[in-house]
Amino acid sequence: MRRTGLLLVVVVLLVVAGAAIGHVLGRRADTRELTGVIGSEKAGFFADTAVKEALAGHGFRLRLDPAGSRRMADMDLGGYDFAFPGSAPAAVEITHRRAPAGPPVKVFSSPLAVASTSPIADLLQTAGLAGRAADGHRTLDLKAFVAANQRGLRWDQIQGNATFPVQRAVLISTTRPADSNSAALLAAILNTVTGGDLGKVTKVFADQGAVDTTTEEPFESWLSRGKDFAPLVLVYEAQFIDRGTGADHVLLYPLPTIVSDHTVVPFTAAGAELAKLLATDPQLQRLAAAHGFRTAGSPGAVALGAADTIPSPDEPTLHALLVALEERLA
User: Fold this and answer.
1) Domain 32-109+261-290's class?
2) What is the mean pLDDT of residues 184-205?
3) Calpha distance 93→178 (Å, rounded)
4) pLDDT digits (tens, 9 = 90+) for 61-76
5) Is residue 254 within 8 Å of residue 189, measured between CB atoms?
6) Residues 192, 321: contact at Cβ < 8 Å?
7) How far, in Å, are 21, 31, 77, 81, 187 from residue 61 at the CA level?
8) Would you say 123 and 158 are in contact if contact means Cβ atoms under 8 Å apart?
9) Global confidence as pTM
């Protein structure tokens, strides 16, 4: 009797195990591997195990290549199911390179911001270049910043500066506008605050010398080296919220800034399915918010009003600005 009972338990366990294995194998058989090119600022989101598991639950496994969002339009996109740049204008530019399989899909958004530290932000406030909003978040006055750049302000020339008294120009470390969406949108903001003075816009970028091509590169350098790399680094808000919360790390919001819509361009039917899933699945949207991106259900920790932002320029306008800027930077 005992033997019969034991055999029955073993049989039941084998049946359950077999069903589980069959379910897993069946799910793997249905899984589609998609290849995409993404803005580097989203690498952390897609590397998250929870995101991978959520995608796998819908039958997707992704193989991803990071690239500067503006650079994607110059790539050979033939082997990709989708591209995921950092803005709607960059997405439109990509559609000129390869015909999409459906309309570009906005998945989430993130405003441009500047990563720094409390002592540097306090120093900039002393110099009249930074301040605080009513809710306490830090701001960077871009008109005052451009004026300081025009007169060649150095850190050691700021009165009472015992924080960073070095003979270096007061600059924001950025990427190359022709390659990277973050720098391209900063160029658009600077173009607005200077009233279209291309010379002033050019100087902000030219004074930096050689720069990186993806937004993640200078941010990584800042995280590891701090102000020894650069006291101010252009980032997306999401990058900082996701990884930049060191003891004295602070985020400054440029006045004005642009809230950039991170947008998927699908090249295949499967890519279009993935784009819709990323934009509408509640679990994936919650995970995106956990990584600092602004979603429909999570508008962000800092409220930005109409006076704090400007709309992203359309692609023809931004393209013309970047061509003119690149000519001057060459």
Assistant:
1) alpha beta
2) 97
3) 12
4) 999 999 999 999 999 9
5) yes
6) no
7) 19, 7, 19, 12, 36
8) yes
9) 0.87
